[in-house]
């Protein structure tokens, strides 16, 4: 890519600043300077976007659209500069103007339009698609308020709204000219014209879907794909004057408000489904707008509708966008006048589906009444899909009514979205090997038996551009100095680093880089919490959504046990540790919120107890998100991935930590298994039950938490500490956690894995004592992390699901 010279950059930046603010940049605030830089870069990207689109339109290469309810992009400035090859020029140029690029970057609000893993994966995929020169675009919702901002007040989580658009968003461009109408409610009138049924959707409520486009720039390859996020507006932006005249003024306002509600806020629940009408509205809203605009674009460029499936792939990120299937059917049937068979062939060939969770409480199903009322025409189509599917089941399972009704799309007055997604797509994939096996053998086994060829695995990945090159420049420099730069384009070349992991000077260098990152994090911890932590202590990070299955409680119990031991035996030889927690709890998830309170309470006791606080510190960092993760991950020694085996579909922070040279302490769950396969027993700390044992307990019972406690006095005592006032005067403060373990029989086997967790933690201490040994392990982890780049994942999707035209010409 032709990059700018420093001189040109300075000139352009100064003139951009003048144009925006009518004064010289030296008088500006950092926020204004950020805005000016953002808009300068945005303009430069415009040219790349135009060229990319021109190329896509003329080569007619297959276009991939990734439909996702969530895109957790974080900040864009730094990563965009990196990908454009302008990071150095920009940093140096600004320096000449006495401006620190970092100070400007901090002014950018995180784009937090996602809950966690699923949304961040979508963001990593966009980066990889653009960087691999694949014509892949995002389609989602432009929530006015993203994931809530978390504050800790009195040790408890408090939720504040995330008004991320308050200062505007330099990266997006509103495209009023590309707006679509989405229709809700009303009735369907069926007309018979010469024996053909024509469906008229009448009396509906129209909603204007206005797209906002954000360019996604590939790594130094002159590609800019598009992320299109839809915003809901009243069709007549002004009040409806006819109803106004009739005195129905309030009705007009009501309509406007109810429409704008659709894209108002991201639902903050993940892994827990709530059958809210507004959520169903959100789902249909962006799906319908997206599919309509894709078809409009396709036809505008002279695409033949019968070849649609050869030129377009629509991917659905979990079941949330499943309505892509009936919506595409609707357009093909009602607007393109295709036969059912043709429409069905095109739809199923076009759509593919990724499952991200086996937690049954996260499975989406909509009450038939609600569905029918909100989407009458779509419901008719889903009914027809269901009938045809059930008929095909009858052929195979003669007389087996139970099986047929358990597989049906509509049953027990519910529309089951996962069933619709499987039936209406040509590919169903899980996100790590174990997860896919569980889908095939357990969760979706009937469907796997019926459609064995649809099922496949695509182990998740993370973009090494954001999560290594951008967030860990120290390590990146060391890698470039030792193995050269090829890993940037070919991340599996990181393997070349393995031989360096043995070298003393490299081990020392790795230690030095880590220490520097830890000093940076220590500063952040001090600023945010007032707690002073020792950068030479072992940084042990457990950062992710707070959820019972992720077992923050197991970590808490272990710290509580360690605290008891240190009190009893002040000379106990342990490695000083800083326990770092961060993560948000869904606002309605009491147990998870109680866990946050527990962590903070343990912190208050431990950090203020002079008998132990030279040895251990417990820190909870509020408002976990992409930007905070970028500070925590490069500074971590030990990565906690301790979910109940079988429950974590993949996990992706495990990969980020590994790539930054943290050692993983883990159950053999999700992608931890594949990390273990990569680095071998000696370079990871594995503990706990395996999937067979867990599934066996779940299926056959036989586990008793009370018995576990009876057998292990230390465990009994630690669990007892939850309700004896040790960590909070109010003895009932952590009653819900205590009850989840002792009364509800510890659904996630925390107590069962406790002993083996303590054992392996002792091994961690032993290993950490030998600094050289530890750094060697870090080096090996880094060397083997390349396979977890989302570039690998995306190549697999492109080759075996999307059938996209692969043009690796810039690689
Ligand atoms: C309907 C409410 C709801 C919302 C979001 C249910 C479920 C979700 C997501 C599927 C939750 C999620 O983010 N799952 C995570 O997806 C990651 C990317 O594949 C995996 O790495 C994580 O293991 C999985 O928990």
From TrEMBL:
Q: What is its EC number?
A: 2.4.1.1
Q: Which residues form a coiled coil?
A: none
Catalytic activity annotation: [(1->4)-alpha-D-glucosyl](n) + phosphate = [(1->4)-alpha-D-glucosyl](n-1) + alpha-D-glucose 1-phosphate
Keyword hit for Glycosyltransferase: yes
Q: Which SUPFAM superfamilies match?
A: UDP-Glycosyltransferase/glycogen phosphorylase (SSF53756)
Does the keyword Cell inner membrane belong to this entry? no
GO MF, any single term: pyridoxal phosphate binding
Where's it found, cell-wise? Cytoplasm
Superkingdom of origin organism: Bacteria
In terms of Pfam families, this protein maps to:
Phosphorylase
At which residues is N6-(pyridoxal phosphate)lysine found? 656
- Which cofactors, by name? pyridoxal 5'-phosphate
List the GO cellular component terms. cytoplasm
The function of this protein is:
Phosphorylase is an important allosteric enzyme in carbohydrate metabolism. Enzymes from different sources differ in their regulatory mechanisms and in their natural substrates. However, all known phosphorylases share catalytic and structural properties. Allosteric enzyme that catalyzes the rate-limiting step in glycogen catabolism, the phosphorolytic cleavage of glycogen to produce glucose-1-phosphate, and plays a central role in maintaining cellular and organismal glucose homeostasis.
The record's similarity note reads: Belongs to the glycogen phosphorylase family.
Name of the molecule in the record = Alpha-1,4 glucan phosphorylase
Species in which this protein is naturally found: Clostridium cadaveris
